[in-house]
Inverse folding.
């Protein structure tokens, strides 16, 4: 009888082991699904924040009045030192920039995306010549471009700014301006230069 009892126990043991194995595998699969769900939820949060900025942009374009009670949000960047694109001589620029942002949330996002923002601004400066940056118009244009490149660094899709065609006559230029879309509102409301040295 003991041999028969042992054979019966041996026959009953494998199904219990299979049940435990199935339960363990199911638990691992459930944990893996929970982990994937958490990763997707975390990835969607920055995208949703970017969408909030994108959705808020048209509203800001329509509302031009600035709330005087709201304190400005400034973000000073570390100074940029970059070789300029002059071909006749080695020249470089040292530029200190402070950004004025639309909200505190944008300031927090800027800290997260700072490497991309600095890269975009450095690439922009590296393609400039000293002649491009000497005059007031050049600095104004650079400020607009820095605002656009900063917005791109924050993950927003920004349309390219159209350059005026010097060969085009004034009437055609005016017609284009009428057809031009409403300017896209950026999270960077102003760019201020704290230092601007070209050598």
């Amino acid at each position: 009888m003991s041999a028969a009892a042992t054979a019966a126990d041996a026959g009953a043991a494998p199904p219990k082991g299979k049940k435990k194995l199935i339960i363990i595998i199911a638990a691992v699969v459930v944990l893996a699904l929970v982990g994937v769900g958490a990763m997707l939820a975390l990835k969607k949060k920055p995208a949703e924040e970017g969408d909030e900025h994108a959705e808020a942009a048209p509203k800001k374009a329509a509302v031009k009045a600035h709330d005087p009670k709201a304190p400005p949000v400034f973000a000073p960047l570390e100074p940029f030192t970059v070789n300029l694109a002059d071909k006749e001589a080695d020249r470089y620029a040292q530029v200190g920039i402070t950004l004025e942002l639309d909200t505190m949330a944008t300031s927090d996002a800027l800290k997260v995306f700072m490497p991309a923002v600095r890269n975009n601004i450095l690439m922009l400066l590296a393609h400039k010549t000293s002649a491009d940056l000497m005059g007031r118009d050049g600095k104004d244009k650079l400020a607009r471009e820095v605002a656009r490149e900063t917005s791109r660094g924050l993950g927003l899709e920004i349309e390219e700014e159209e350059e005026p065609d010097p060969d085009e006559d004034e009437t055609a230029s005016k017609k284009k301006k009428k057809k031009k879309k409403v300017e896209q509102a950026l999270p960077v409301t102003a760019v201020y230069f704290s230092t601007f040295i070209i050598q």
Remarks:
- DSSP finds six helices and four strands in the chain.
